[in-house]
Specification:
The structure is a single chain. The protein has 194 residues and is mostly helical. The protein is 91% helix and 0% strand. The chain has helices at residues 7-16, 21-45, 49-127, 132-193.
Length: 194
Amino acid sequence: RKLFFDTHALVCLLEENGFTTQQSEVIVSALVKIMNTNLDMIYTDMVTKVQQEIALQQVMSHIGGVKKDMIILEKSEFSALRSENEKIKLELQQIKKQVMDEITKVRADNKLNLNLEKSRVKELVSFDYCLLETSKQRHAQQDRALTQTDRKIDTEVADLKTMLESHKLDNIKYLAGSIFTCLTVALGFYRLWI
């Protein structure tokens, strides 16, 4: 072990100050032993460069394993989100198709009712032509019935439009929720990655 001071110069200094050669050498050897003991204590707490490199390599391999796990997890989560998104899209398409079928059915029913009402009114007008007074009253009743039917049709069409808008808003909410969920998961993985 190298000493970073001149032991012979220290012995000479002690001799100059009144110590004998033997006393000076004992003092210097005691100081050397104390320094060696202190250095041994310090060296037990220190890490060698090789040990430090080994520990760094172990940490880097653990980080690499965690990165691989994160990539696998990210891919599996994104595929799950994509499949869920596809399911939601299919459900939305089915709901849209059902709504369109309902609208078509209601329109057809309303047209049929309207045509039936018109044909019935025409029959009543032709049948009661000779009775003008009664035909006028019936005409008024038929007009009221037509007005009520038209009002019913208008209210049902308005209800269907409202229901369609409500379904559209629900679909947009689900889509936005799915997108924000994807973004949140991606940001979470990104934050864990960093």
